[in-house]
Amino acid sequence: MPTLTSYEPISRAAIGTVNITTAEQLPTLVNAAQQAQQYWAKLSLGMRQQQLNHAFQQLTPVQDQLAKLIGQEMGKDYRRATYEVGGTVQSASYFTDEISQALAPERLDRNTELQYRPLGIVAVIAPWNYPLAMANNLLMPALMAGNAVILKPSEETPLVAELFVNTLNKVLPKGLLQLAQGDGETGKALVASAIHMVAFTGSMATGKHIMANAAPALKRLVMELGGNDPMIVMASADIDAAVQFAVASSFENAGQMCTSTERVYVDARIATEFERKVVALARQYQVGAWDKPRVNIGPLVNPVQHQKVLDQLQDATQKGAQLLLGRDDYPLPFIQPTVVTGMTADMTLECDETFGPVVAISHFKHIDEAILRANDSPYGLGAVVFGGQGAAAVAEQLEAGMVGINQGVGGGGPWVGAKQSGFGFHGTAAGHRQFAQVRVVSK
Ligand code: NAD
In this structure, which CATH number among 3.40.605.10, 1.10.10.60, 3.10.20.600, 3.40.50.300 belongs to the domain 3-225+421-442? Predict the structure, then answer.
Protein backbone atom coordinates (compact mmCIF):
# COMPACT_ATOMS: atom_id res chain seq x y z
CA MET A 1 0.00 0.00 0.00
CA PRO A 2 1.65 3.34 -1.02
CA THR A 3 1.86 5.85 1.82
CA LEU A 4 2.13 9.61 2.24
CA THR A 5 4.24 11.04 5.03
CA SER A 6 3.52 14.40 6.64
CA TYR A 7 6.59 16.43 7.63
CA GLU A 8 7.00 19.16 10.22
CA PRO A 9 8.19 22.24 8.27
CA ILE A 10 11.03 23.31 10.61
CA SER A 11 12.78 20.04 11.46
CA ARG A 12 11.40 18.14 8.44
CA ALA A 13 10.76 15.30 10.90
CA ALA A 14 8.05 12.84 9.90
CA ILE A 15 4.97 13.36 12.05
CA GLY A 16 2.62 10.81 10.58
CA THR A 17 1.74 8.66 7.61
CA VAL A 18 -1.49 7.94 5.77
CA ASN A 19 -2.36 5.49 3.03
CA ILE A 20 -2.53 6.99 -0.43
CA THR A 21 -5.80 6.50 -2.29
CA THR A 22 -4.85 5.03 -5.64
CA ALA A 23 -6.74 5.43 -8.91
CA GLU A 24 -7.70 1.73 -8.64
CA GLN A 25 -9.37 2.33 -5.27
CA LEU A 26 -11.45 5.30 -6.39
CA PRO A 27 -14.34 3.30 -7.93
CA THR A 28 -14.92 1.73 -4.49
CA LEU A 29 -15.12 5.18 -2.91
CA VAL A 30 -17.40 6.39 -5.70
CA ASN A 31 -19.72 3.37 -5.22
CA ALA A 32 -19.96 3.97 -1.49
CA ALA A 33 -20.61 7.67 -2.15
CA GLN A 34 -23.40 6.81 -4.60
CA GLN A 35 -25.13 4.57 -2.07
CA ALA A 36 -24.90 7.16 0.68
CA GLN A 37 -25.99 9.99 -1.59
CA GLN A 38 -29.20 8.22 -2.58
CA TYR A 39 -30.22 8.03 1.06
CA TRP A 40 -28.99 11.54 1.90
CA ALA A 41 -30.76 13.22 -1.03
CA LYS A 42 -34.11 11.91 0.22
CA LEU A 43 -33.73 13.64 3.58
CA SER A 44 -35.29 17.06 3.98
CA LEU A 45 -32.99 20.08 4.20
CA GLY A 46 -33.89 20.32 7.89
CA MET A 47 -32.82 16.73 8.54
CA ARG A 48 -29.52 17.17 6.71
CA GLN A 49 -28.94 20.32 8.72
CA GLN A 50 -29.66 18.50 11.98
CA GLN A 51 -27.26 15.68 11.15
CA LEU A 52 -24.48 18.01 10.05
CA ASN A 53 -24.86 20.17 13.16
CA HIS A 54 -24.63 17.03 15.26
CA ALA A 55 -21.54 15.90 13.34
CA PHE A 56 -19.80 19.26 13.83
CA GLN A 57 -20.53 19.12 17.57
CA GLN A 58 -18.28 16.03 17.67
CA LEU A 59 -15.37 18.33 16.78
CA THR A 60 -15.56 20.32 20.02
CA PRO A 61 -13.38 17.92 22.06
CA VAL A 62 -10.73 17.72 19.31
CA GLN A 63 -10.49 21.44 18.55
CA ASP A 64 -7.18 21.88 20.33
CA GLN A 65 -5.75 18.76 18.73
CA LEU A 66 -6.77 20.08 15.30
CA ALA A 67 -5.13 23.46 15.97
CA LYS A 68 -1.90 21.79 17.06
CA LEU A 69 -1.91 19.54 14.01
CA ILE A 70 -2.27 22.59 11.75
CA GLY A 71 0.79 24.07 13.47
CA GLN A 72 2.74 20.84 13.18
CA GLU A 73 1.85 20.11 9.56
CA MET A 74 2.08 23.55 7.95
CA GLY A 75 3.64 25.82 10.59
CA LYS A 76 0.76 28.20 11.33
CA ASP A 77 1.13 29.82 14.75
CA TYR A 78 -1.10 28.43 17.47
CA ARG A 79 -3.23 31.58 17.86
CA ARG A 80 -4.14 31.66 14.18
CA ALA A 81 -4.64 27.91 14.00
CA THR A 82 -6.98 28.07 17.01
CA TYR A 83 -8.89 30.84 15.30
CA GLU A 84 -9.22 28.78 12.10
CA VAL A 85 -10.50 25.74 13.98
CA GLY A 86 -12.77 27.75 16.29
CA GLY A 87 -14.28 29.61 13.34
CA THR A 88 -15.01 26.35 11.53
CA VAL A 89 -16.56 24.57 14.50
CA GLN A 90 -18.45 27.45 16.09
CA SER A 91 -19.95 28.80 12.88
CA ALA A 92 -21.19 25.39 11.69
CA SER A 93 -24.80 25.75 12.82
CA TYR A 94 -25.02 29.33 11.50
CA PHE A 95 -23.54 28.08 8.21
CA THR A 96 -26.02 25.19 7.83
CA ASP A 97 -28.88 27.52 8.69
CA GLU A 98 -27.86 30.04 6.03
CA ILE A 99 -27.44 27.26 3.44
CA SER A 100 -30.77 25.75 4.36
CA GLN A 101 -32.51 29.05 3.66
CA ALA A 102 -30.63 29.50 0.37
CA LEU A 103 -31.60 26.05 -0.90
CA ALA A 104 -35.27 26.15 -0.02
CA PRO A 105 -37.54 25.99 -3.11
CA GLU A 106 -38.46 29.41 -4.53
CA ARG A 107 -41.79 30.23 -6.07
CA LEU A 108 -41.26 32.49 -9.09
CA ASP A 109 -44.91 32.96 -10.02
CA ARG A 110 -48.18 31.05 -9.62
CA ASN A 111 -47.02 28.26 -11.94
CA THR A 112 -43.25 28.14 -11.59
CA GLU A 113 -40.99 26.94 -8.82
CA LEU A 114 -37.18 26.88 -8.65
CA GLN A 115 -35.71 23.92 -6.84
CA TYR A 116 -32.11 23.36 -5.73
CA ARG A 117 -31.41 19.67 -6.24
CA PRO A 118 -28.33 17.55 -5.52
CA LEU A 119 -25.76 17.10 -8.27
CA GLY A 120 -24.52 13.73 -7.03
CA ILE A 121 -20.92 13.34 -5.87
CA VAL A 122 -18.76 16.41 -5.31
CA ALA A 123 -14.96 16.14 -5.26
CA VAL A 124 -13.63 18.80 -2.90
CA ILE A 125 -9.94 19.46 -3.60
CA ALA A 126 -8.29 21.66 -1.01
CA PRO A 127 -5.00 23.52 -0.40
CA TRP A 128 -2.75 23.45 2.69
CA ASN A 129 -2.67 27.13 3.71
CA TYR A 130 -6.01 27.05 5.59
CA PRO A 131 -6.36 23.28 5.64
CA LEU A 132 -9.55 23.12 7.65
CA ALA A 133 -11.40 26.30 6.65
CA MET A 134 -10.85 25.91 2.90
CA ALA A 135 -12.07 22.31 2.88
CA ASN A 136 -15.05 23.16 5.06
CA ASN A 137 -16.14 26.17 2.97
CA LEU A 138 -16.69 23.81 0.05
CA LEU A 139 -17.83 20.58 1.66
CA MET A 140 -20.53 22.11 3.85
CA PRO A 141 -22.65 23.61 1.02
CA ALA A 142 -22.01 20.47 -1.05
CA LEU A 143 -23.36 18.19 1.69
CA MET A 144 -26.26 20.48 2.60
CA ALA A 145 -27.34 20.41 -1.06
CA GLY A 146 -27.77 16.64 -0.79
CA ASN A 147 -24.52 15.58 -2.40
CA ALA A 148 -21.95 13.07 -1.18
CA VAL A 149 -18.39 14.42 -0.89
CA ILE A 150 -14.98 12.94 -1.52
CA LEU A 151 -12.39 15.28 0.00
CA LYS A 152 -8.87 15.34 -1.43
CA PRO A 153 -6.86 17.41 1.04
CA SER A 154 -3.42 18.77 0.29
CA GLU A 155 -0.53 16.31 0.56
CA GLU A 156 0.99 18.82 3.05
CA THR A 157 -1.85 18.45 5.56
CA PRO A 158 -3.22 14.88 5.42
CA LEU A 159 -3.41 14.47 9.21
CA VAL A 160 -5.59 17.53 9.79
CA ALA A 161 -7.99 16.20 7.15
CA GLU A 162 -7.97 12.72 8.65
CA LEU A 163 -8.85 13.91 12.15
CA PHE A 164 -11.52 16.25 10.77
CA VAL A 165 -13.24 13.67 8.56
CA ASN A 166 -12.92 10.74 10.98
CA THR A 167 -14.49 12.85 13.73
CA LEU A 168 -17.43 13.94 11.57
CA ASN A 169 -17.86 10.34 10.45
CA LYS A 170 -18.56 9.22 14.00
CA VAL A 171 -22.14 10.27 13.25
CA LEU A 172 -22.50 10.88 9.50
CA PRO A 173 -23.95 8.10 7.31
CA LYS A 174 -21.26 5.77 6.02
CA GLY A 175 -19.86 6.77 2.63
CA LEU A 176 -21.33 10.29 2.65
CA LEU A 177 -18.03 12.03 3.37
CA GLN A 178 -14.87 10.18 2.38
CA LEU A 179 -11.21 11.02 2.11
CA ALA A 180 -8.95 10.48 -0.88
CA GLN A 181 -5.39 11.03 0.33
CA GLY A 182 -2.44 11.75 -1.92
CA ASP A 183 -0.85 14.41 -4.10
CA GLY A 184 -1.85 15.81 -7.49
CA GLU A 185 -1.98 12.31 -9.00
CA THR A 186 -4.79 11.32 -6.64
CA GLY A 187 -6.48 14.66 -7.38
CA LYS A 188 -6.23 14.05 -11.12
CA ALA A 189 -7.66 10.54 -10.82
CA LEU A 190 -10.48 11.85 -8.64
CA VAL A 191 -11.43 14.50 -11.21
CA ALA A 192 -11.50 11.77 -13.89
CA SER A 193 -13.61 9.40 -11.76
CA ALA A 194 -17.43 9.18 -11.88
CA ILE A 195 -18.03 12.32 -9.83
CA HIS A 196 -20.34 15.16 -10.90
CA MET A 197 -18.68 18.31 -9.64
CA VAL A 198 -15.24 19.55 -8.61
CA ALA A 199 -15.10 22.25 -5.96
CA PHE A 200 -11.50 23.39 -5.92
CA THR A 201 -9.42 25.85 -3.95
CA GLY A 202 -5.79 26.10 -5.00
CA SER A 203 -3.43 27.57 -7.55
CA MET A 204 -4.33 28.94 -10.96
CA ALA A 205 -2.11 26.36 -12.69
CA THR A 206 -3.85 23.41 -11.00
CA GLY A 207 -7.24 25.01 -11.67
CA LYS A 208 -6.48 24.97 -15.40
CA HIS A 209 -5.54 21.26 -15.30
CA ILE A 210 -8.72 20.46 -13.42
CA MET A 211 -10.85 22.42 -15.84
CA ALA A 212 -9.35 20.57 -18.81
CA ASN A 213 -9.82 17.19 -17.12
CA ALA A 214 -13.38 17.99 -16.10
CA ALA A 215 -14.33 19.10 -19.62
CA PRO A 216 -15.06 15.73 -21.31
CA ALA A 217 -18.04 15.07 -18.99
CA LEU A 218 -18.80 18.77 -18.42
CA LYS A 219 -18.44 18.29 -14.69
CA ARG A 220 -19.59 21.30 -12.73
CA LEU A 221 -16.84 23.48 -11.32
CA VAL A 222 -16.28 25.94 -8.53
CA MET A 223 -12.79 27.39 -8.85
CA GLU A 224 -11.30 29.45 -6.03
CA LEU A 225 -7.82 30.15 -7.38
CA GLY A 226 -4.72 32.17 -6.53
CA GLY A 227 -4.32 35.93 -6.38
CA ASN A 228 -1.70 38.64 -6.83
CA ASP A 229 -3.57 41.35 -4.98
CA PRO A 230 -2.56 44.98 -5.54
CA MET A 231 -2.91 47.78 -2.99
CA ILE A 232 -2.95 51.42 -4.07
CA VAL A 233 -2.00 54.07 -1.52
CA MET A 234 -3.11 57.54 -2.59
CA ALA A 235 -1.48 60.74 -1.30
CA SER A 236 -4.73 61.48 0.56
CA ALA A 237 -4.62 58.18 2.49
CA ASP A 238 -4.37 57.86 6.25
CA ILE A 239 -0.75 56.74 6.07
CA ASP A 240 -0.69 54.93 9.40
CA ALA A 241 -3.80 52.92 8.52
CA ALA A 242 -2.32 52.08 5.11
CA VAL A 243 0.97 51.00 6.69
CA GLN A 244 -0.85 48.78 9.19
CA PHE A 245 -2.84 47.12 6.45
CA ALA A 246 0.08 46.69 4.01
CA VAL A 247 2.25 44.94 6.60
CA ALA A 248 -0.45 42.87 8.28
CA SER A 249 -1.88 41.71 4.96
CA SER A 250 1.51 40.92 3.39
CA PHE A 251 2.64 38.92 6.44
CA GLU A 252 -0.61 37.12 7.33
CA ASN A 253 -0.04 33.35 7.53
CA ALA A 254 3.65 34.03 6.65
CA GLY A 255 2.34 35.59 3.43
CA GLN A 256 0.79 32.28 2.41
CA MET A 257 -2.70 33.58 1.78
CA CYS A 258 -4.64 33.96 -1.47
CA THR A 259 -5.70 37.56 -0.70
CA SER A 260 -2.50 38.74 0.98
CA THR A 261 -1.26 42.06 -0.37
CA GLU A 262 1.33 41.26 -3.03
CA ARG A 263 2.08 44.61 -4.69
CA VAL A 264 1.87 48.04 -3.10
CA TYR A 265 1.66 51.10 -5.38
CA VAL A 266 2.25 54.22 -3.33
CA ASP A 267 2.06 57.86 -4.41
CA ALA A 268 5.65 59.14 -4.74
CA ARG A 269 4.79 62.19 -2.62
CA ILE A 270 4.25 60.09 0.50
CA ALA A 271 6.50 57.14 -0.37
CA THR A 272 9.41 58.04 1.94
CA GLU A 273 7.22 58.28 5.03
CA PHE A 274 5.21 55.20 4.04
CA GLU A 275 8.31 53.07 3.55
CA ARG A 276 9.95 54.25 6.79
CA LYS A 277 6.83 53.28 8.74
CA VAL A 278 6.41 49.96 6.92
CA VAL A 279 9.98 48.98 7.81
CA ALA A 280 9.51 50.03 11.45
CA LEU A 281 6.36 47.95 11.78
CA ALA A 282 7.75 44.97 9.86
CA ARG A 283 10.71 44.80 12.27
CA GLN A 284 8.30 44.08 15.12
CA TYR A 285 7.16 40.78 13.64
CA GLN A 286 8.43 37.67 15.35
CA VAL A 287 9.46 34.67 13.30
CA GLY A 288 9.52 31.16 14.75
CA ALA A 289 7.86 27.86 15.52
CA TRP A 290 4.07 27.57 15.74
CA ASP A 291 4.05 26.78 19.48
CA LYS A 292 6.29 29.64 20.65
CA PRO A 293 4.52 32.60 22.26
CA ARG A 294 4.52 35.93 20.39
CA VAL A 295 5.43 34.28 17.07
CA ASN A 296 3.35 35.71 14.24
CA ILE A 297 5.29 34.46 11.21
CA GLY A 298 5.87 30.73 10.94
CA PRO A 299 8.10 28.81 8.53
CA LEU A 300 7.24 28.38 4.88
CA VAL A 301 5.42 25.13 4.37
CA ASN A 302 8.21 23.28 2.54
CA PRO A 303 11.60 23.80 0.85
CA VAL A 304 10.04 24.16 -2.61
CA GLN A 305 7.84 27.09 -1.51
CA HIS A 306 10.83 28.62 0.32
CA GLN A 307 12.99 28.43 -2.79
CA LYS A 308 10.21 29.98 -4.92
CA VAL A 309 10.17 33.06 -2.69
CA LEU A 310 13.99 33.32 -2.75
CA ASP A 311 13.95 33.05 -6.56
CA GLN A 312 11.43 35.90 -6.72
CA LEU A 313 13.46 38.07 -4.31
CA GLN A 314 16.71 37.39 -6.19
CA ASP A 315 15.09 38.11 -9.56
CA ALA A 316 13.87 41.44 -8.13
CA THR A 317 17.24 42.49 -6.65
CA GLN A 318 19.07 41.47 -9.84
CA LYS A 319 16.69 43.68 -11.83
CA GLY A 320 17.32 46.68 -9.57
CA ALA A 321 14.87 46.46 -6.66
CA GLN A 322 16.27 47.52 -3.27
CA LEU A 323 15.84 45.64 -0.03
CA LEU A 324 14.71 48.07 2.70
CA LEU A 325 14.48 45.22 5.21
CA GLY A 326 15.69 41.63 5.05
CA ARG A 327 17.69 39.67 2.50
CA ASP A 328 17.21 37.58 -0.60
CA ASP A 329 19.12 34.50 0.60
CA TYR A 330 17.45 33.22 3.78
CA PRO A 331 18.33 29.71 4.93
CA LEU A 332 15.51 27.17 5.34
CA PRO A 333 12.80 27.19 6.63
CA PHE A 334 11.98 30.85 7.40
CA ILE A 335 11.63 34.00 5.34
CA GLN A 336 12.15 36.92 7.71
CA PRO A 337 9.94 40.03 7.32
CA THR A 338 11.13 41.54 4.06
CA VAL A 339 10.44 44.94 2.49
CA VAL A 340 11.42 45.64 -1.12
CA THR A 341 11.07 48.86 -3.10
CA GLY A 342 11.65 49.85 -6.70
CA MET A 343 9.51 47.06 -8.12
CA THR A 344 9.02 46.92 -11.88
CA ALA A 345 6.53 45.01 -14.01
CA ASP A 346 9.15 42.56 -15.37
CA MET A 347 9.97 41.14 -11.92
CA THR A 348 8.45 37.79 -10.94
CA LEU A 349 7.84 39.25 -7.47
CA GLU A 350 5.50 41.69 -9.19
CA CYS A 351 3.80 39.50 -11.77
CA ASP A 352 3.52 36.13 -9.98
CA GLU A 353 1.80 35.25 -6.73
CA THR A 354 4.29 35.45 -3.82
CA PHE A 355 3.70 33.05 -0.93
CA GLY A 356 6.01 34.64 1.64
CA PRO A 357 6.12 37.58 4.10
CA VAL A 358 7.23 40.26 1.67
CA VAL A 359 5.99 43.84 1.23
CA ALA A 360 6.80 44.77 -2.40
CA ILE A 361 6.52 48.50 -3.13
CA SER A 362 6.56 50.72 -6.24
CA HIS A 363 6.04 54.48 -6.44
CA PHE A 364 3.67 56.17 -8.87
CA LYS A 365 3.41 59.76 -10.06
CA HIS A 366 -0.06 59.63 -11.53
CA ILE A 367 -2.98 57.53 -10.28
CA ASP A 368 -3.69 56.20 -13.80
CA GLU A 369 -0.25 54.59 -13.78
CA ALA A 370 -1.10 52.79 -10.50
CA ILE A 371 -4.45 51.57 -11.81
CA LEU A 372 -2.81 50.30 -15.00
CA ARG A 373 -0.15 48.40 -13.05
CA ALA A 374 -2.73 47.03 -10.60
CA ASN A 375 -4.84 45.68 -13.45
CA ASP A 376 -1.92 44.38 -15.51
CA SER A 377 -2.30 40.80 -14.29
CA PRO A 378 -4.16 37.64 -15.23
CA TYR A 379 -5.19 37.42 -11.56
CA GLY A 380 -8.21 39.26 -10.22
CA LEU A 381 -8.96 38.02 -6.73
CA GLY A 382 -8.75 41.01 -4.38
CA ALA A 383 -7.63 44.63 -4.73
CA VAL A 384 -7.45 47.39 -2.15
CA VAL A 385 -7.20 51.16 -2.27
CA PHE A 386 -6.38 53.47 0.62
CA GLY A 387 -7.20 57.14 0.12
CA GLY A 388 -9.53 60.00 0.92
CA GLN A 389 -11.90 61.50 -1.59
CA GLY A 390 -11.45 59.78 -4.91
CA ALA A 391 -10.63 56.35 -3.43
CA ALA A 392 -14.04 54.98 -4.42
CA ALA A 393 -13.52 56.18 -8.01
CA VAL A 394 -10.19 54.38 -8.11
CA ALA A 395 -11.72 51.21 -6.62
CA GLU A 396 -14.37 51.34 -9.33
CA GLN A 397 -11.64 50.86 -11.95
CA LEU A 398 -9.91 47.88 -10.29
CA GLU A 399 -10.38 44.49 -11.96
CA ALA A 400 -11.01 42.15 -9.04
CA GLY A 401 -13.77 39.98 -7.65
CA MET A 402 -13.39 41.65 -4.24
CA VAL A 403 -12.38 45.26 -3.67
CA GLY A 404 -11.62 46.96 -0.36
CA ILE A 405 -11.70 50.72 0.23
CA ASN A 406 -9.59 51.68 3.24
CA GLN A 407 -9.90 48.09 4.46
CA GLY A 408 -9.34 44.50 3.42
CA VAL A 409 -11.54 42.49 1.09
CA GLY A 410 -14.28 39.96 1.65
CA GLY A 411 -16.17 41.17 4.69
CA GLY A 412 -19.35 39.16 5.07
CA GLY A 413 -19.78 38.58 1.35
CA PRO A 414 -19.00 35.64 -0.87
CA TRP A 415 -15.40 34.82 -1.83
CA VAL A 416 -15.18 35.79 -5.48
CA GLY A 417 -12.37 35.70 -8.01
CA ALA A 418 -12.42 37.67 -11.27
CA LYS A 419 -10.29 37.01 -14.37
CA GLN A 420 -8.09 33.91 -13.92
CA SER A 421 -8.51 33.87 -10.14
CA GLY A 422 -11.50 31.65 -10.67
CA PHE A 423 -15.19 31.41 -11.32
CA GLY A 424 -18.04 30.00 -9.41
CA PHE A 425 -17.66 30.89 -5.76
CA HIS A 426 -18.79 30.00 -2.29
CA GLY A 427 -20.50 31.96 0.46
CA THR A 428 -23.89 33.70 0.68
CA ALA A 429 -27.04 32.37 -0.98
CA ALA A 430 -25.65 32.82 -4.49
CA GLY A 431 -22.54 30.81 -3.55
CA HIS A 432 -24.41 28.02 -1.76
CA ARG A 433 -26.60 27.49 -4.81
CA GLN A 434 -23.56 26.67 -6.97
CA PHE A 435 -23.38 23.28 -5.29
CA ALA A 436 -26.86 22.37 -6.49
CA GLN A 437 -28.60 21.65 -9.76
CA VAL A 438 -31.24 24.27 -10.39
CA ARG A 439 -34.52 22.71 -11.53
CA VAL A 440 -37.40 24.72 -12.89
CA VAL A 441 -40.75 23.09 -12.21
CA SER A 442 -43.79 24.44 -14.04
CA LYS A 443 -47.14 23.29 -12.75
P1 NAD B 1 -2.12 23.59 -5.47
O2 NAD B 1 -2.87 24.05 -6.66
O3 NAD B 1 -0.71 23.19 -5.65
O4 NAD B 1 -2.85 22.33 -4.79
C5 NAD B 1 -4.17 22.40 -4.36
C6 NAD B 1 -4.75 20.99 -4.33
O7 NAD B 1 -4.83 20.48 -5.66
C8 NAD B 1 -3.92 19.99 -3.53
O9 NAD B 1 -4.77 19.15 -2.82
C10 NAD B 1 -3.19 19.23 -4.64
O11 NAD B 1 -2.77 17.92 -4.27
C12 NAD B 1 -4.25 19.17 -5.72
N13 NAD B 1 -3.76 18.96 -7.08
C14 NAD B 1 -2.55 19.25 -7.59
N15 NAD B 1 -2.52 18.93 -8.91
C16 NAD B 1 -3.75 18.46 -9.22
C17 NAD B 1 -4.34 17.99 -10.43
N18 NAD B 1 -3.68 17.95 -11.60
N19 NAD B 1 -5.65 17.60 -10.41
C20 NAD B 1 -6.35 17.64 -9.26
N21 NAD B 1 -5.83 18.06 -8.09
C22 NAD B 1 -4.54 18.47 -8.06
O23 NAD B 1 -2.25 24.76 -4.39
P24 NAD B 1 -1.61 24.82 -2.93
O25 NAD B 1 -0.16 25.07 -3.04
O26 NAD B 1 -2.09 23.69 -2.12
O27 NAD B 1 -2.34 26.12 -2.34
C28 NAD B 1 -1.91 27.42 -2.58
C29 NAD B 1 -2.70 28.05 -3.70
O30 NAD B 1 -4.09 28.06 -3.35
C31 NAD B 1 -2.34 29.51 -3.92
O32 NAD B 1 -2.34 29.78 -5.30
C33 NAD B 1 -3.46 30.26 -3.21
O34 NAD B 1 -3.65 31.57 -3.66
C35 NAD B 1 -4.62 29.37 -3.54
N36 NAD B 1 -5.73 29.61 -2.61
C37 NAD B 1 -6.85 30.24 -3.09
C38 NAD B 1 -7.89 30.53 -2.23
C39 NAD B 1 -9.15 31.20 -2.71
O40 NAD B 1 -10.13 31.19 -1.96
N41 NAD B 1 -9.19 31.80 -3.88
C42 NAD B 1 -7.80 30.18 -0.88
C43 NAD B 1 -6.65 29.51 -0.43
C44 NAD B 1 -5.62 29.24 -1.32
Answer: 3.40.605.10
